[in-house]
From TrEMBL:
InterPro entries: Rossmann-like_a/b/a_fold, UspA
Taxonomic lineage of the native organism: Eukaryota, Metazoa, Porifera, Demospongiae, Heteroscleromorpha
Family, as annotated: Belongs to the universal stress protein A family.
Naturally occurring in which organism (per UniProt): Geodia barretti
CDD domains on file: USP-like
PANTHER family in the record: STRESS RESPONSE PROTEIN NHAX, UNIVERSAL STRESS PROTEIN UP12
Domain UspA, chain residue ranges per copy: 4-115
UniProt-recorded name of the protein: Universal stress protein MJ0531
Amino acid sequence: MLEYTVVLLRVVRPLHYFWVGEHPPEIHEENELMENEAREYMESTAESLSQDGIDVEWRVLVGHPTTIVLEHVRDIPHSIVALTTHGRSGFRRWLIGSLAETLVRSGGDPVLIVPPPEQQEQINGHA
């Protein structure tokens, strides 16, 4: 029987990545709030999957998403990577980069990309 573990990974990008100059004091509180929300979401999602009999682990990490996800993918051999995407294109995609594109080009493992709901409707011909 094939055994597998689903590893859920959520990366929180700290607000200071977007800040030039001195950080306001509230930025640390806001970062902590984002991390707590991410943990609650991951815990809830993992619990739901576990109830369906799926072996699941979860992690919330802080940093640049592309760097962190690539590091984790490379640490887990023979993976299948599944991720959702914001569906950005054009200038916004160039400006912030594309985690999905980076994983496809340099991750080394198969990548399943799930488009946002509005793009799924277009793909299925419902828009």
